[in-house]
Amino acid sequence: MKGYQYLENDFFDMCKTREIGRIPMLLYIYLRGLYCRFQKPVFFCFDRQIKEHLDISQSTLARARQFLQKRGVITFYSGKAAKPTEYTMLGTVLLPVIKKKIPSRQNHVYRYRQKDDTIYTSYERLKNKIGIFQGITEEERADLKKKGIL
Q1: Per-residue pLDDT tens over the stretch 61-107
Q2: What is the 3 state secondary structure string of 3-30?
Q3: Pairwise CA distance, residues 74 & 31, whole Å
Q4: How many whole angstroms separate alpha carbon 19 and alpha carbon 78?
Q5: Mean pLDDT on 105-129
Q6: Average pLDDT, stretch 116-122?
Q7: Does pTM surpass 0.70?
Q8: Which phi and psi angles does 29 have, rounded to 5°?
Q9: Which of 56, 58, 64, 136 has its C-alpha lying 20 to 30 A from 126's C-alpha?
Q10: At what angle do helices 58-71 and 22-38 cross, to 10 degrees?
């Protein structure tokens, strides 16, 4: 399912061994969710959105981001004014594996119809079409009456 993340049983133990506290861990789980949603390691998010969802202050958010950057699990470039913050999720054991890449909308490849397309299969159906059902003959009808079916 796109947009969902799965926390392994040892996720919290690994955070404990890396000495990641509650608020940075909460922020990291939130950023993992965005990573799973966007299916890319680099994404953008506004600070006000994170503050509203996690119910934390700007200073708490800044401290948690700095802490996660020191631990080597994320890098970020803070957005100025109306620009969002750019987050980069670094490949660690705490990060989930994305199994399927989603192609970008801008790089759409125009494909040509192949011979197995629906147009060609409908032509094949027309060629293989058997004539219209004529019904049964009088001889077949008599045989069915003898058997008691009609």
Answers
A1: 999 999 999 888 889 998 887 889 999 888 766 666 655 555 666 65
A2: CCCCCCCCHHHHHHHCCCCHHHHHHHHH
A3: 9
A4: 24
A5: 58
A6: 55
A7: no
A8: -65, -40
A9: 136
A10: 80
* Spatial distance between the Cα atoms of 140 and 142, rounded to a whole number of angstroms: 5
Q: Which residue has the higher pLDDT, 57 or 16?
A: 57
DSSP H/E element including 46 = none
Residue 35: phi and psi, rounded to 5, are: -60, -45
* Helix, strand, coil fractions of the chain, as percent rounded to 5: 45, 10, 45
Which residue bears the tokens 């401290």?
63
Tell me the two tokens of residue 138.
Answer: 């009088």
**For tokens 């994404």, what's the residue?**
43
Residue 2 is classified by DSSP as: T
Maximum distance among all alpha carbons in the chain? 95
Which single residue is written with the structure tokens 């490849």? 109
